[in-house]
Specification:
The structure is a single chain. The chain folds into 5 domains: 74 residues, Nuclear Transport Factor 2, Chain: A, CATH 3.10.450.490; 69 residues, Roll (Nuclear Transport Factor 2, Chain: A); 125 residues, Elastase, domain 1; 185 residues, Orthogonal Bundle (Neutral Protease, domain 2), CATH 1.10.390; 135 residues, Galactose-binding domain-like (Jelly Rolls, Sandwich), CATH 2.60.120.260. It is built from 11 helices and 30 strands. The longest helix is centred in the middle third of the chain and has 23 residues. Strands 1, 2, 3, 4, 5, 6, 7, 8 and 9 form a 9-stranded mixed β-sheet that branches. Strands 10, 11, 12, 13, 14, 15 and 16 form a 7-stranded mixed β-sheet that branches. Strands 21-24-29-26-27 form a 5-stranded antiparallel β-sheet, with no helix packed on it. It is an alpha+beta fold. 21% of the residues lie in helices and 30% in strands.
């Protein structure tokens, strides 16, 4: 089922030693407790916002914290601006101790300031949202927000329309309406649907409590209820006289409850035992599963708080198997971590994530009645010919999904744009060629024609979980997925490991182009070119080898790079800020001349005249002495790149820091964009 959501780009900015705030509320030193970690980080949000250089009126709210064994933390934040929620303004801060090492801004949205007075009335926005819903609304409300598009933040109304679609699926549809033009910018539905099989899992043990209630106190209180054909409400928790549940037949109402409860139990155990995750929201709390939804409802869904399962065609094939439970509960994990949108590339990543972990749960269960395989929905027979809904080894076999990523992939329904990532998971796990898995013959080829050796399903799943929980944000793309997965594999297994190279090869095998991240044995991602003494001189590896303020080194498309996609973008904030980026470099004592050169582009909103408001300085730091070699300002406006060359021969035989410093006053932006630096000696 197609659900449209906000598409966008996730951009990574990196920096070192960015002056993180002092920890007055340190994270627990041992026995990591995620809720306590969230509380501790929330106490530091004002200091963190200041360290990141966020604008006046911006506040952070911690959504998730992941802490590695070495103390490295990945803190995920949502933002508000002048009290308005910023949709698409989420960011991830990676740090260790007092040092911020990396900041990932969703859609490159470092700054989110907008004028907060709408020209469109709220009533007009509500009407627009209700019209966009395309179902009979039972509720309609709205509020002003800042909505981050792939190019800029805008003031918008978030209109939430509730109701039920023609196929009985409930909807809580968020429509984002431009508060000036009235255009519907994007939509996102809280209810994430998915279909799977209704396979009977045999005789199983399930967690119950009290006087035989289908509630599991050992797994956060996971419990299962009977909706008895209703499409609303909580349902009635299943109870039994002797703790022997169901008959294995759909005619017994408890049978569907057993399968759903068993599936939630297996999924909880999988995330806890394999990934160290304590429930869907990583806070130890369980969730409800509702069965017997509607009449002959051929679907299942996650609605933000619970799993719900229909009884299938003729009310005889409940969609309550292991992989469906894993799929739906994983939508909850995605919501609690990356919160991937449900359209564009992000929609495919969202849906494939649930297929990946639903499949991983099925393998982990090791249930002889439901052996693990790489088919999705193989027993439900929705097609009427015994074929599955989706094939991970060759997604295009369903006639609608795609095997390989392209620039058009994001335009597909998320269930079909999921194809490339499902294909990646199979290639990374099993490789190319033919083999029998779970009694099923699988055969896969790489889109680039390569022969790929799999690194194992467990490795691929661990890499993808780390990518989801520490690298991706709501608008992430397939290119972001490749970058995140390779970096995750490097962190887990090492840059020169077989595992990292297998993960990388599988992404090449689905035609996702290479970016900055790469496996290998210790070479710089972008080494110096020719006689250039600077490392990563064109910034194409992000902030690798450069230190200073987080954010200015960026591939944000708001300003063009001279070459490649990354550059140094100083200022452009329109408020009082100072930013700096520098690199330490040794100039040989044997040099007769040493030259620093770079290309710079300057655009400004300042009025023409003779007053300097905003500046960018090029400096050399030699021990305790800082020398400014050149100063550029709003008066030097030039919207095409110009090369500048400076003599640094006087520093031969020394190790100095080449530094670019931008300063901006309280109003009107000036952007100093620098690319393709070099320091050569002869």
């Amino acid at each position: 089922m197609a659900i449209v959501a906000a598409a966008g780009l996730a951009t990574t900015f990196t920096a070192s030693n960015a002056g993180a705030a002092d920890r007055t509320a340190p994270l627990p030193a041992s026995g990591f407790n995620q809720p306590a970690a969230v509380q501790a980080e929330q106490a530091l949000t004002a200091q963190t916002a200041a360290a990141l250089g966020l604008g006046t009126g911006e506040q952070l709210k911690v959504r998730d914290v992941v802490k590695d064994a070495d103390g490295t933390e990945y803190v995920r934040y949502d933002r508000t601006f002048n009290g308005l929620k910023v949709v698409g303004g989420d960011l991830i801060v990676k740090r260790k101790g007092e040092s911020i090492g990396q900041v990932t801004y969703n859609r490159g949205a470092k700054a989110v300031a907008v004028a907060t007075k709408p020209t469109l009335s709220q009533s007009a926005a509500l009407t627009k949202g209700a019209q966009a819903a395309k179902f009979k609304a039972t509720g309609n409300k709205g509020q002003l927000v800042v909505f981050v598009t792939p190019t800029k933040p805008v003031l918008a109304y978030e209109v939430v329309t509730t109701g039920v679609k023609a196929d009985q699926t409930p909807s809580v549809l968020h429509s984002f309406v431009d508060a000036k033009s009235g255009a519907v910018l994007a939509q996102d539905d809280e209810v994430k649907t998915g279909t799977g099989n209704s396979m009977y899992s045999g005789t199983v043990s399930i967690g119950t409590s009290g006087s035989y209630t289908m509630s599991d106190p050992t797994r956060g209180g996971n419990y299962t209820t009977d909706l008895n054909g209703s499409t609303s409400g909580s349902g009635t928790t299943f109870t039994d006289a002797d703790d022997t549940w169901g008959t294995g037949a759909a005619s017994n109402r408890q049978t569907a409850g057993v399968d759903a409860h068993y599936g939630s139990q297996l999924t909880w155990d999988y995330y806890k035992n394999v990934h160290g995750r304590n429930g869907i929201f990583n806070n130890g709390q369980g969730a409800r599963s509702r069965v017997h939804y509607g009449n002959a409802y051929v679907n299942a869904f996650w609605d933000g708080t619970q799993m719900t399962y229909g009884d299938g065609s003729g009310n005889t094939r409940p969609l309550t198997s292991i992989d469906v439970a894993g799929h739906e509960m994983s939508h909850g994990v995605t919501e609690a971590t990356a919160n991937l949108d449900y359209s564009g590339d992000a929609g495919g990543l969202n849906e494939a994530t649930s297929d990946i972990f639903g499949t991983a749960v099925e393998f982990s269960a090791n249930n002889s009645s439901d052996p693990g395989d790489y088919l999705i929905g193989e027993k439900i027979n929705i097609n009427g010919n015994g074929t599955p809904l989706r094939y991970m080894d060759k997604p295009s076999k369903d006639g609608r999904s795609v095997d390989c990523w392209s620039t058009s992939t994001g335009g597909l329904d998320p269930h079909y744009s999921s194809g490339p990532l499902n294909h990646w998971f199979y290639l990374a796990s099993e490789g190319t060629g033919s083999k029998v898995i779970g009694g099923v013959t699988h055969s896969s080829t790489a889109c680039n024609g390569a022969t790929i050796t799999g690194v194992g399903r467990d490795v691929a799943a661990k890499v993808w979980y780390r990518t989801l929980s520490t690298k991706l944000s709501s608008g992430s793309t397939y290119k972001d997925a490749r970058e995140g997965a390779i970096n995750s594999a490097k962190e887990l297994y090492g840059a020169d490991s077989t595992q990292c190279k297998g993960i990388e090869a599988a992404f090449s095998g689905i035609s996702v182009p290479a970016g900055a991240a790469a496996c290998g044995g210790g070479t710089d991602p972008e080494p110096p070119t020719g006689d250039n003494l600077l490392l990563n001189p064109g910034f194409e590896s992000g902030a690798v080898n450069w230190t200073g303020t987080s954010g200015p080194i960026t591939n944000n498309t708001g300003r063009p790079a001279r070459t490649g996609t990354w550059k140094l973008w100083l200022q452009g904030n329109g408020r009082t800020t100072t930013e700096n980026v520098g690199q330490s470099v040794a100039i040989p004592a044997s040099a007769t001349t040493a030259t620093l050169s770079f290309w710079i582009r300057i655009d400004t909103a300042e009025t023409t005249g003779s007053t300097v408001y905003d500046t960018a300085k090029v400096q050399v730091v030699d021990g305790s002495t800082t020398t400014t070699l050149a100063t550029y300002s709003n008066l030097n406006k030039n919207t095409s790149y110009v090369q500048k060359t400076l003599n640094v021969t006087q520093y031969k035989g020394k190790t100095v820091t080449v530094k670019f410093v931008g300063q901006e006053d309280s109003s009107l932006q000036t952007s100093f964009v620098i690319d393709d630096t070099s320091l050569t000696a002869s």
